Amino acid sequence: MSWLASLKTWGKNTAIYDNGRIVSYLELSDLIDANFLRLKALTESESNKSAVTTNLDRPLVMLSMGNSLVSVVHYLTCLSAGWPVILINPKLSNDATNSLLKDYRPNFLLRESQIDVLSLTQHNIAQSLAVIMMTSGSTGGGKGVALSASNIEANTNSICQFLPINSSDIALASMPLSYSYGLSILHTHLAKGACTALTSFTVMDREFWTLLEALPVTSLAGVPHWYDMLIRLRFTRRHLPHLRYFTQAGGRISENIAKALSEFSEKNASPFYRMYGQTEATARIAWLPPELAGVKLDSIGKAIPGGELCLKDETGQVIKGAGVEGELHFKGENCMLGYVNNIDQCASFSPLTSLATGDIAKRDEDGDYMIVGRIKRIIKLLGERINLDGLEAMFCSKQLDVKCCGNDSVLYICCQPDNKANVDAQCEVLLSIPPSYFKVVSVAQWPLLHNGKTDYVALQKQVEGILNDTP
Length: 471
Known about the structure:
Strand content: 25-35%
CATH topology of the largest domain: Rossmann fold
Helix content: 25-40%
CATH architecture of the largest domain: 3-Layer(aba) Sandwich
């Protein structure tokens, strides 16, 4: 990757801010070099201890990727050395971690300053494999997404073409670096000689807000749930003159939040970029120009530079007309190598030429796309297909925040306790199915995935538990 090889060219620019520590690009490059020598020496030391000659030239590394300088150095060491690295969330349970260790049999396990040499066996790993990211985040049980250095380079370069990142920027790493959106912030800012600020503070901490203005942070990036919290904490009432722009991705944003952020964007003169992506496409797939953020509140815009989007019907035929729903497909150099579930599947790949996103979308007359649901987020009641994401949007248009889940036998509409009466009333208006086929359930708090999206699997289990306990 060209940006990784040229870190030193940014000289004394600040690369990483880690809870008060300032690390220049020169220092970061030196830390990577020293870390490589240390890890290499460990393999030789272990080889001497076991009296076994090893040809471990390209170890497989499993990295517990925290938002810390140590993790960043470990990660960049692997990339620069060409060592394939599996990124896991530090909050992953011991059982889930042990399951991954059994499936992938890595040579190294890196957890902050703790380094474990687990094996000296050289695995048969495709030269194209650079990174494996887990789709399950902190819960475990998901699939591994195999990415190449070319995938990362292509997506980094593409993002840098439409986001106004410059070498004086300071981006706040508000999302886990084990998550593709969070990791893309690191990639793009290193590519531009900018600073990525790492912090353990959350939006609920006073220190977070102090840091925001003291550094000062020039760009923010977050998922819908994070921005929802910011708005509740009166973020949009603040004056942040140093905030050059801010971005959102990681799931569909409600029109209410999109409108509030667009109004703040205009008031604060900070362009608001809405984006769409998937781990399977390394990070970003589409983006909406900021001048449209307040006009097209439910749009993801067009494909990123170098990419192509299209819609396909259930027979696989391309949909050419506007306003017709179909599955969103993406074509670009950032499409993953493929899925992997164990070390044996890492030996070779047939890289994807296009990606079926699993999202249902439609295109407007301007060629901008709008996500309307998820293929797997559809149930069928009494022979009628119900788009659960679309149903949530209908309630949202009535200023009601609900989460919908269920199966082909029953629909669950979940809401906050103080909204139940209003949701009950709207069900009579919005739903055409008999009352025996849906239930409105009060839930105090939505369970969330590591990336801030609603954990619908956990929500459905929670709802079923509530109903089972109800006399």
